[in-house]
Design brief:
alpha+beta, 20 strands, nine-stranded antiparallel β-sheet, Beta-galactosidase, Chain A, domain 5, 2 domains, 495 residues, eleven-stranded mixed β-sheet
Length: 495
């Protein structure tokens, strides 16, 4: 059914209806009753420009991103051409004291069946409820299939902040019996995909920070599919078609569906439909990232500034792994302490690698040093660091979130590169506390590593750099403390 949906006539100002709530500015088209524009007043397009909301859905000369819905099938009013609805007004606004606003469009087909397409908007909600009311005043049964689809051309993600290492997914996402969350890139849609049937479910278009999605009723059986538009090979379509439903003569029936258009709020999406919150893609480490995100939100509920919240989160994570880090730094300190003896062994055995290796292992055993003790604890912590990276990258809360002074947006790079340079300096200071590798070439590489990392982090979002800077500074303090403690213990034994 989805594949046979006709294209609506070109919209114009005479067929458009505008709806304004506290969180949504929506433009509806009476040609088909489609959603042809959605702006988000709570999210600016540019941080320094007021009254210019971020536009999520749009339909202009260069970009097409719309949400279509209708009735197709045996008696469907959108089977061959799109229905032209009538409405009592062209502008609707949520009142200051009202909790909801409704837009009702009506259409009567040739058999006298009246269809009302009703849009319901709730205060503070990005979920739009769409209900079809079919009043069959004819003398024959009436049947159709409900469909919903998202049409988008392949333009770049306007919400992506770019930068090195940033690669948020842009494309369709859905859920199925075999996979609670799967992604389909536009290129794969062009290759052709097999539709799947599912009770409940959802299908959406995911981009950095924002999501649009059709959410049919949980008890309804629908066929989900993705395809190229036959009219435009650069336009991709993802959507659903319901099973056929019938309305007996002289009776009234309803069909409903939800459409979400807004930010990727993990907890709000979880309440709307199972697995919809997985569109906030933390990758394979989601089971670590989710509690980290929860902790970040909890901290910010008290602090009210995501910059300080990231710093406090870093302290919490560092405290969680304090023992492991202590083991690593203790191993490094011991390696640093016996470094003069290792140099002596190298001078004694020269190029005889076998004897040098044997003598080195004997030295480790005598001094009770594990040469891998400095590496293993750090490897254990790496999954947490990677998960935290994805949390900070995927969290819409950090978009245009200010910190202090010149940092007015934690989701983009530091405009003056102060944080990356401080981070590089802290990494260099930390390298001075670590034992230099015995191999001269490795030693040069380790000394040059802070320079490489600084250049790499210049274009990273400020929130991520702030985390790595804080983590490095805390590591320096912990390593310095443990090194001093080891040295005092050794001096005490010598005395």
């Amino acid at each position: 059914m989805l594949g046979t949906t006709p294209t609506a006539a070109t919209s114009n100002s005479n067929t458009r209806i505008t709806v304004r709530t506290d969180v949504l500015d929506v433009v509806l088209d009476r040609n088909g009753g489609d959603i042809i524009q959605v702006s988000l007043p709570e999210y600016r397009k540019q941080i320094d420009v007021e009254n210019d909301p971020f536009v999520l859905l749009e339909n202009n000369g260069s970009r097409v991103y719309v949400a279509k819905s209708g009735l197709v099938g045996r008696n469907g009013i959108d089977s061959t051409t799109r229905a032209l609805y009538q409405a009592s007004a062209s502008n609707y606004t949520l009142g200051e004291t009202a909790d909801s606003v409704e837009v009702a469009m009506t259409y009567t087909d040739a058999q006298g069946v009246q269809i009302t397409k009703r849009f319901s908007f709730q205060r503070g909600s990005y979920l739009i409820d769409i209900t079809y009311e079919i009043n069959n005043a004819s003398g024959a049964p009436w049947s159709a299939n409900l469909f919903g689809q998202i049409n988008r051309t392949g333009f770049e993600d306007p919400s992506s902040v770019g930068g090195v290492g940033m690669s948020s997914f842009l494309g369709f996402a859905a859920t199925s019996l075999d996979d609670p969350y799967y992604k389909v890139e536009f290129e794969d849609v062009a290759n052709g995909l097999t539709p799947h049937e599912l009770t409940g479910g959802w299908i959406g278009l995911s981009q950095h920070y924002f999501l649009s999605a059709w959410i049919p009723p949980a008890e309804a059986v629908n066929t989900y599919s993705m395809r190229l538009s036959p009219q435009n090979q650069n336009e991709y379509i993802g959507g659903f078609t319901s099973q056929e439903f019938s309305v007996a003569p002289g009776t009234t029936a309803t069909q409903s569906v939800g459409f979400y258009a807004g930010p990727k709020d993990q907890y709000a999406l979880r309440e709307i439909s199972p697995n919809l919150d997985l569109t906030i893609d933390y990758g394979v480490l989601w089971f670590i990232a989710s509690p980290i995100y929860w902790l970040l939100r909890q901290i910010n509920s008290f602090v009210g500034n995501y910059g300080w919240s990231i710093l406090l989160l870093t302290v919490c994570v560092k405290g969680l792994f304090y023992k492991l880090s202590a083991t690593s730094y203790r191993s490094m300190a011991n390696m640093r302490r016996v470094m003069p003896k290792m140099v002596q062994l190298k001078e004694r055995y020269g190029d005889d690698k076998m004897k040098l290796q044997k003598a080195t292992m004997e030295l480790y055993q005598k001094e009770k040093i594990n040469p891998f003790g400095g590496c293993l604890p750090m490897l254990v912590q790496m999954p947490v660091f990677i998960a935290l990276y994805w949390v900070l990258m995927e969290s819409v809360e950090l978009r245009q979130a200010p910190f202090i002074l010149w940092i007015n947006d934690l989701s983009v790079m530091d405009p003056f590169f102060v944080l990356p340079l401080l981070m590089g300096a802290s990494m260099f200071a930390q390298s001075l506390l670590s034992p230099a590798p015995a191999d001269p070439m490795q030693a040069k590489i380790m000394r040059f590593m802070p320079v490489v990392m600084t250049i790499f982090f210049l274009w990273f979002p400020a929130g991520l750099v702030l985390y790595w800077l804080a983590n490095s500074v805390l590591g320096i303090l912990q390593q310095w403390y443990i090194t001093r403690k080891i040295e005092k213990e050794f001096e005490g034994k010598k005395a």
